[in-house]
């Protein structure tokens, strides 16, 4: 960050300042599922590996866990029992609550005195699950008594109610890659890139991610894929949702766990944690403006990260683009591209410290913890002084950024919600269901099944001012869509199907900025 380093003088630090004092990652790849660990064991192993002695772990009195594929009623209680923190208050963050939100809650808990030592953990054992299924078995998991509930539950009603629209489902959108590839096409067209130019650029970005993953001891994919191997479909790298091949989407078939431990500066001193292991959360800024993908004025909601960056500047005086390290959420390429642009990050900077979710691994609801742990380790081991880690939830409907520093912050840690500002900048468009009429393509993708194009799905602005989603199954239309940009082109819609209108001459795509 563009600010003068401050000496870590104990007398200059507010004793209530939150500090990240421990972190650890676990990444396993057991071929025999019987040797593998269930998610809660991965979480407990991560907690035990944070460098805190057993006696220190027993001081943990607040445990926050993100809900994952394995739906334990109260995973925090299982972790508490395993590490001896039997009296800890447990918190479960449901799907739809950003991982950053749980981190912010932990920091606030120690800052306010609600907790003395807060532990945030997450873990997935989907690789174990898949291996067991392949062997004709199910992988056992710990069961809790009926009626078990966590001490506190964080949920998002807006996420549950508004993340998707019936028109999207009617057009055949179901899996996450289809939604993100729609967002991608809108961003690409706005930046005047042809489909081929964009695929080349994304492949180059991900080639660099591969190189970074090769240095990450926890990464699940370290093969030196070339940009051509990443870009082009092949039997081992099928196209999933144009332009995204398998190597461009998150790898969630992983057995990974991560733990982060927070305390105040006073508690960290009392516990004897070396200052070299202190990392300071500076600010957590987030937008929880939930709008279905097709109903967004601009599908990639570019204002969100710009407003988050402004919040960081306003509350801390720091320049987000001046961070030494970045990890921009990369379940798909477009969140990293939009994030870099909104934060003003130079094109020559690395956008990940882990190698990204395609190569480091993307446990469903805890990858960000791994990014934070990796960044914290680099802040401890190198000359880097600051890191910015972004997060999203849903189909890029929520966004957040966390700033970490190895220097004590000039101002108290703060959590800023910019949802209202983002809602003003990114208003919702009225949606229509089964419509008939003419319109213009706003975004599109081609969805694949078993390596073959199955349908082209398009978001369309109708002439009456409403928005709809329609599909086309014609092979020639799908082939054209993957070679020539359809965004900005005229179409006719009837009974959920769209037909491109004949184009006379040439017309460059026109997309709102």
From TrEMBL:
Region (Disordered): 134-154
Coiled coil: none
Keyword Transferase: yes
Protein's UniProt name: Acetyl-CoA acetyltransferase
Gene Ontology molecular-function annotations: acyltransferase activity
Record-linked Gene3D superfamilies: 2.40.50.840, 3.40.47.10
Residue ranges occupied by any Thiolase-like protein type 1 additional C-terminal domain in the UniProt entry: 424-494
Keywords: Transferase
Record InterPro entries: Thiolase-like, TLP1_add_C
Biased composition (Polar residues): 145-154
């Amino acid at each position: 960050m563009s600010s003068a380093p401050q000496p870590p003088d104990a007398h200059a630090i507010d004793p209530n300042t939150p500090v990240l004092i421990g972190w650890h990652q676990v990444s396993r790849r057991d071929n025999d599922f019987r040797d593998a660990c269930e998610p809660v064991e991965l979480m407990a192993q991560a907690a035990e590996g944070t460098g805190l002695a057993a006696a220190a772990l027993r001081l943990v009195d607040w445990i926050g866990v993100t809900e994952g594929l394995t739906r334990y009623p109260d995973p925090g209680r299982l972790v508490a029992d395993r590490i001896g923190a039997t009296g800890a208050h447990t918190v479960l963050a449901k799907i739809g609550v950003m991982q950053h939100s749980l981190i912010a809650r932990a920091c606030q808990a120690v800052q306010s005195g609600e907790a003395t030592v807060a532990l945030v953990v997450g873990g997935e054992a989907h690789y174990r699950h898949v291996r067991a299924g392949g062997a004709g078995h199910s992988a056992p998991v710990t069961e809790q008594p009926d009626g078990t509930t966590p001490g506190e539950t964080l949920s998002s009603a807006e996420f549950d109610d508004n993340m998707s629209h019936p028109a999207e489902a009617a057009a055949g959108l179901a899996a996450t890659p289809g939604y993100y590839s729609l967002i991608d096409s809108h961003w690409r067209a706005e930046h005047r890139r042809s489909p081929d130019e964009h695929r080349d650029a994304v492949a180059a970005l991900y080639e660099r991610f591969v190189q970074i993953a090769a240095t990450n001891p926890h990464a699940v994919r370290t093969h030196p894929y070339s940009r051509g191997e990443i870009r082009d479909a092949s039997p081992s790298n099928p196209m999933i949702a144009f332009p995204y091949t398998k190597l461009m989407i998150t790898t969630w078939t992983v057995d990974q766990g991560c733990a982060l431990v927070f305390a105040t500066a006073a508690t960290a001193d009392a516990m004897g944690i070396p200052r070299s292991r202190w990392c300071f959360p500076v600010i957590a800024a987030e937008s929880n403006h939930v709008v279905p993908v097709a109903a967004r004025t601009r599908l990639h909601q570019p204002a969100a990260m710009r407003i988050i960056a402004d919040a960081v500047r306003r509350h801390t005086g720091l320049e987000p683009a001046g961070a030494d390290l970045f990890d921009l959420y990369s379940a798909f390429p477009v969140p990293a591209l939009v994030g870099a642009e909104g934060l003003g990050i130079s094109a020559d900077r690395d956008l990940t410290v882990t190698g990204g979710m395609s190569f480091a691994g993307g446990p469903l609801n805890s990858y960000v913890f791994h990014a934070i742990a990796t960044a914290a380790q680099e802040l401890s081991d190198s000359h880097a002084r600051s890191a910015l880690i972004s997060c999203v939830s849903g189909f890029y409907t929520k966004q957040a950024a966390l700033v970490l520093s190895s220097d004590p912050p000039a101002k108290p840690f703060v959590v800023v919600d910019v949802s209202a500002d983002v809602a003003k900048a990114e208003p919702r468009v009225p949606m229509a269901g089964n419509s008939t009429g003419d319109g213009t393509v706003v975004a599109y993708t081609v969805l694949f099944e078993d390596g073959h194009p199955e349908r082209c799905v398009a978001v369309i602005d109708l002439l009456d001012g409403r928005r709809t989603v329609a599909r086309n199954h014609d092979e020639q239309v799908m082939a054209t869509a993957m070679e020539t940009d359809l965004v900005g082109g005229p179409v006719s819609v009837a009974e959920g199907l769209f037909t491109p209108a004949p184009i006379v001459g040439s017309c460059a795509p026109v997309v709102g900025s």
